[in-house]
Amino acid sequence: MAKKQRTTIIFLLLILICQKALSGAIPTVVTTPQILAQGSLSLASSSCLSWCFTGVCVWLKCALFFCSVDTSPRYKHNNPDLVVTVYDELGFDPWVEMNAIYAPFQLTLANTILSWVTPVPLVGGGHQTEGTPPGGLMEDKSLRFKEASAYGHPMSILSSFSAGLAFCPSEATPLFPYFLSGTDALEWRFGLLEMLQPASLIPGARTVGLGGFFQQWGPVFPRTGFVKQKNDPLASAVVAQRVGNIVTGNSGLHVSGHLKGSGFSWTVLPGELIENVPWTGVWQMIAPIPDPVCYSFGSPLPWELGRSTDDNGYAYALWRRYECCAAKGSLITIVPAMACLP
Predict the structure, then answer these.
(1) How much helix, strand and coil, in percent to the nearest 5, is found in the chain?
(2) Neighbouring-strand partners of residue 144
(3) d(CA 289, CA 123)
(4) Where are the beta strands (DSSP E) in 282-329?
(5) Is pLDDT above 70 for 210?
(6) Alpha-carbon distance 20 to 152, whole Å?
(7) What pLDDT digit, counting tens, does each position of 126-144 carry?
(8) How many CB atoms lie within 10 A of CB 134?
(9) Torsion, CA 122, CA 127, CA 131, CA 133, rounded to 10
(10) H or E element in which residue 9 lies
(11) What pLDDT is attached to residue 313?
C-alpha cells in the first residue's frame, strides 16, 4: 500500500510539472553549486560577511605548580546560515536537489494531514484580486498563499572547519531541512495557534518595513503561508522573514527544526531573527536575481522591481552575526578594540 501511495504521489508531481511546462511558465531553479558560488563571492562583500576584529580575550592557564597568561583574538562576522525558498506549490521548490529529495515526502504528508480535517484536496498557492471601493474603481486586495522551506546553507560547513582561525562556527547544519511547510500543513494553512500570539493580536506589530504605513511589506505574525500583498516579490520576502523567525525564535507552534548553538567556546550567538534589525540577520536574494549584497527586508526603495518570476518562486540566503574567541583557559577579561574589513 505504501509503495502504491508513493507511486501515486510521484505521478501527481509529474502531472503538476507538465502543467507548469504547458502553461508557458519558466520555472525558477537554483542548484547547490550556484548557491556555493554566490556564497563564496559574497565573502568579499562587507554587507554580507561584515568581518571585524573586536578585541583580545585574556586567559589564565594553570598547571600543577604554576600559572600563565595567554590571549586569543576576538572577532565578529556574519555566517550564511540558511537558504529559504518560497514558492506557490509543493513540488516546485526552486532548490533543485532539495526539491527532488523532499517534494514527494511533503506531498504525501500534507495530503495525509489535511485529509484528517478537511475533504478539500491539497491545492497550490497563488492570489486573488477582488473588491470594489465606494468610488467604483477596482481595488487590488490580493491575498496570497506561499509554501516555503528552510535548509542549512551549504557554506555553513566552512565556518565550522575554520573555527578558531578568524571565524566563528555556524549554528546551522549544511543541507538540513529546518522547515518544510508541507510537514507543517495544518498550522501553515490555518494558523490556529499562531492567532493566539500577542504579536498577531496587535495591529501594526512586528511589521517588515520602516518607511511608514504605505511602505510596509507585511506583518511577520501570524506566521502562516497567507500574505495580503499585491506584489509577489514583497510577499515572498515577508514569508521568508516568517520562516527565518520560526527557525531562529520560538518555533514551538510549528513542526520545524531550530538553530540551537554551535558549542564553540565563548561565542555570542545571533539569537532570534527580528525584522528591520540588521544585526540579527540580513538577507540576500539567490534567485531569480543573485544579489551581490545583503540587506534587511523592508527598504522604502522599490526593491521589488525586476524580481518577479513566472512561477512565483524565490530563494534567499540568511546571514547572521556571531562573535567569538577561542578558549585557552579561564577567561580573565576582554580587551575591546575595533577594526573592520572594508
Answers:
(1) 25, 25, 45
(2) 127, 227
(3) 27
(4) 282-287, 314-325
(5) yes
(6) 28
(7) 665 554 455 555 555 689 9
(8) 5
(9) 150
(10) helix 2-22
(11) 98
Q: Is 178 helix (H, G, I), strand (E, B) or coil?
A: strand
Stated as kind and residue range, the H or E segment containing 159 is helix 156-161
Dist. CA 308–CA 299, nearest whole Å: 17
Residues 6+ apart with CB under 8 A from 214: none
pLDDT tens for each residue of 76-108: 999 999 999 999 999 999 999 999 999 999 999
Query: What's the full length of the chain, in residues?
Result: 342
Of 142, 146, 139, the C-alpha closest to 128 is 142
Calpha distance 340→342 (Å, rounded): 6
The helix-helix angle for 2-22 and 96-115 (nearest 10°) equals 120
DSSP run (H or E) holding 258: none
Whole-number Cα distances in Å, 64 to 6, 272, 296, 330: 64, 43, 52, 15
The set of cell numbers assigned to 127 is 492570489
| Phi–psi pair at 324, nearest 5 degrees | -160, 165
DSSP tag of 59: E
Q: Residue 71 and residue 77: Cα distance in Å, rounded?
A: 20
263-289 average pLDDT score: 92
Q: How far apart are CA 277 and CA 248, in angstroms?
A: 14
